[in-house]
Design goal:
Helix content is 79%, strand content 0%. Helix 4 packs across helix 13 and helix 9 packs parallel to helix 11. The chain contains 13 helices and no strands. The longest helix has 34 residues. 35% of the residues are buried. The two termini are 18 Å apart. By secondary structure, it is mainly α.
Length: 335
């Protein structure tokens, strides 16, 4: 393509489109039709230039022009409470439900790894000796030791906020870093299971496994489920890079990536609940059975939410992706 000739041939159309977009609120019917036609043609011109003779300055100018024209043609849309309600009742649970074949196995395997690590640490004194000195281990696991006071060492509100922030960051990293073939996700997941296994092993070796479970289960059930969902989704995103299926790799990554970003927002809300439980329920004076009961109730509520609302939304065609009107449009083709 001779870029100079191409620009000379179509500059008048681009200038006309620019003029129409600047006065889009004062167009008559014929001018509106002209705006749509010129928008389609200019979008096609942009595609041709990008593929045949990329020029950064010209591409930037036409990209801005096409974006303004698209806004004039389709109109702008503001988010509303209805969008938030739709996301919470359909989009988020559908996205979690669709990825269940990834995060459920992830949860089962990860839990098994944590239990095996805990058993290994709890039954092998030489392994415990590599973690810390015996005196330090006794201080950690004794009644009123560091494992117990950890949950009440700070004011409940600030502790809950800190826990929520840390867990939300870990979940977001699993979702975002999944695009790197899922390898960073596996490392983040292993670190979480290792920490859990160390606590399990040390407390069980001290004969205080019941205390450990009473401290972890109230918030841990929901918290770990959120982490498993994030990790499973990240692994699925990594697999999409390898095998996008019938879609093009670019389309598949765009669709799965948008759903993953939405899940990051939804999981942040789930982790807010688990953080509140960890800050206010776990260190409370409630009986152990009551604290664990609250954790089980929160977990069952989330699973019901996913499998009932999410399953219903998926059967109705929901994917967790943005609605068609909210996505970037494909390049229109004009003669």
């Amino acid at each position: 393509m001779d870029l100079d000739v191409f620009v000379y041939a179509h500059r008048a159309e681009w200038d006309r489109l620019d003029a129409l977009t600047r006065r889009r609120r004062r167009l008559n019917g014929a001018e509106t039709d002209e705006l749509i036609t010129l928008y389609q043609r200019t979008a096609t011109h942009l595609s041709l230039i990008q593929s045949s003779a990329p020029d950064p300055q010209l591409t930037g100018r036409l990209s801005r022009l096409v974006a303004r024209a698209r806004s004039a043609v389709t109109g702008t849309r503001r988010a509303s409470w209805r969008d938030a309600a739709r996301f919470l009742s359909q989009g988020f649970p559908a996205a979690v439900y669709r990825t269940r074949h990834w995060w459920v196995p992830t949860a089962l395997v990860s839990t098994a790894v944590a239990i095996l690590l805990g058993w290994w640490i709890g039954t092998h004194p030489e392994v415990r000796a590599t973690i810390a000195a015996p005196a330090h281990l006794r201080e950690l696991t004794r009644p009123g030791g560091e494992y117990e006071t950890y949950y009440s060492s700070h004011p409940a509100a600030s502790f809950a906020a800190q826990v929520w922030t840390n867990n939300a960051q870990a979940a977001a990293m699993c979702l975002v870093l999944g695009v790197f073939l899922g390898l960073p996700v596996l490392w983040i997941l292993f670190q979480n299971m290792l920490n859990l296994g160390i606590g399990f092993g040390l407390m069980s070796s001290a004969g205080r496994l019941d205390t450990f479970l009473g401290l972890v289960l109230p918030h841990g059930l929901l918290e770990l489920t959120a982490v498993f969902v994030a990790a499973g989704t990240g692994l699925r995103l990594g697999w999409t890079v390898i095998d996008p299926g019938p879609r093009s790799r670019r389309t598949a990554l765009a669709e799965e990536g948008r759903a993953a970003v939405g899940m990051a927002i939804g999981l942040a809300l789930v982790l807010f609940v688990s953080g509140a439980i960890e800050g206010f329920v776990t260190p409370s004076g409630l009986p152990t059975w009551a604290r664990i009961g609250i954790g089980i109730a929160a977990e069952l509520a989330f699973l019901t939410y996913v499998y009932v609302l999410g399953g219903r939304a998926v059967r109705a065609g929901e994917t967790g992706d943005l609605m068609a009107s909210e996505r970037s449009s494909t390049v229109p083709i004009a003669a």
